[in-house]
Amino acid sequence: MQLRLVRAATLLAAFTMTTAPRGEVASFHGRTTYYSEGTPYGKMTVINPSTVLTVKPWESFGITGGYSADIVSGASIKTRNAARGQNPDAVSSASVKDTRHVVNGGLSFKRKLSTLQAGYNYSTENDYRSHSVDVFGKTELLQKTVELSIAYSHNWDSVCDRVQIDPDPTRRLSLDNSVGCFKPSDKLTTRPIAIDAIQGGWTQLWSPTFATQATYSIQIMNGFLSNPYREVNIGVSSPAQEYVPAVRVRQAAGLKANWYIKPLKTAFRIGGRLYRDTWDVRAISGEAELERYVFIDALRLRARGRYYAQGRAAFYSDDYLIEPRGVYFTGDRELSSMRTILAGVRIAYGPSATHGRWLGLLSKVEASLGLDYIWFRYDDFTINGDPLKKTALVGTFGLSLTF
Amino acid sequence: MRLFILVLAISSAACVTVRPQQRGVLSDAIMQFGGNEHDSVEHAHFRHAIDNREGAFGAEGVSGGGCGCN
Fold first, then answer.
1. What are the distances in angstroms from CA B9 to CA A146, A204, B13?
2. Could you tell me whether strands A91-110 and A114-125 are parallel, antiparallel, or unpaired per DSSP bridges?
């Protein structure tokens, strides 16, 4: 079987290479992202390797396939306000170790002014499975000074949960671990989540050195949106499994601008985004980037900064014993008021073959190394009365080969 | 439909028509939204890391596009 696959791949590569000389016929992208979040309360490490292979048998047609993984290890907060009545800010943690595998494939068609793409993703981990399809189209108008795009995706997801004996949300119990998930069991079940997302984009060239892009997106989530492991002390006999609304509609609008500063030979990019959802989470973010070629044409250096701030969800409370907020309750710190500040640098080297191809195969090689540092501050997710503060380091290494 | 007409109206009123020979800078990777193909894969990784740790989601832009040079 493996021999047949190798033969088929060799034949396909030979076919694509022996057709009339043209630009890119295949490309390979390999990436690894390392995310490390420090203590207190929930040290977490995520390693995210991925590969994407695109083959273009014809100039106007491409086939893409890829694989990625999220290798997660660390600890997360399981019980919010665990020591009821004694120390309302105490937390307990649970160890987390899981690997998420994602495979995807897609097709792309390109005409003179338009591109159409369609793809499929499947991901699986111990307690969560997802199938999704997406379509994307874009076209250029008005002498190619305008580009309009639209994208749609739909997810059919399922999450593992405990079979609840008592349907009363205040008496539901959290899931202890993922052992037995997605297998026949009278103690475990799966709960569905459907996600629809649409995004529209408008890119405008204003001058030979200035362009803008406006985007709007809406996402509708429907199903079991709680974390099945997380539990909150709400004052009943034992902590209850987190309980959040079954529908969440999320809207965001963003504006970006790219400006090339000729005297500095540097690209200056800024962007802003406004966000609001039906859980009443409101957020604003702004980012700025500087990128330029240094020393030689193929070597790029980028520096960036980003600020993000959000308000808490309508039903979020730091302590439900003191301040209950209706029928819902959550221990998710990402639903509390929070701010993040990011600063990072990246260097990329991507020379192209000037005469033919290197080794008769490669027309371009690009490698990059990036490092970002993030400060998190959760204003009303407090630990012993103090806002939780965390930091994280994100490292990325990428390699792209164009044939 | 109204939005589409509005976009076209604003677009056609852009102060300068950028001719193909003037798009050298705009077609460069550093002036592309989301960068080149290499950058857009990296950007997707970065968004994946961030989106899981913030309450907001979406409108993060469309990769490529904008040079009008294809």
1. 11, 12, 6
2. antiparallel
A208: its two tokens:
């030979």
Tell which wins on pLDDT, A87 or A178: A178
Residues in chain A: 403
Q: What is the pLDDT of residues A201-213, one digit of tens each?
A: 999 999 999 999 9
At B36 the pLDDT is 82
Residues 42-61 of chain B with CB under 8 A from chain A are 42, 45-46, 48-49, 53-61
Q: CA dist B5 to A146, A200, A212, B8, B14, Å?
A: 13, 15, 18, 5, 14
Handedness of CA A290, A291, A294, A299 (dihedral sign): positive
C-alpha to C-alpha distance for A346 and A368, rounded to whole angstroms: 7
Identify the weakest region by mean pLDDT among A303-307, A321-325, A395-399.
Answer: A321-325
Domain A13-22+80-95+105-350+372-393 listed as CATH 2.40.160: yes
Share the mean pLDDT of chain A: 88
pLDDT, tens digit (0-9, with 9 covering 90-100), for A52-68: 999 999 989 999 999 99
- Which residues fall within 8 angstroms of residue A28, CB to CB, at 6 or more apart? A51, A52, A53, A54, A400, A401, A403
3-state SS of A322-352? CCCCCCCECCCHHHCCEEEEEEEEEEEECCE
Residue of B nearest to A139 (CA): B65
A214-239 average pLDDT score: 91
Spatial separation of the C-alpha atoms in residues A246 and A66, rounded to whole Å:
32
Phi–psi pair at A334, nearest 5 degrees: -75, 0
For B66, which of A31, A147, A208 is closest by C-beta distance?
A147
Judged by a CB distance cut-off of 8 A, whether residue B7 touches chain A is: yes
- Contact yes or no for B62 and A258 at CB 8 A: no
The pTM of the full predicted model, rounded to 2 decimals, is 0.87
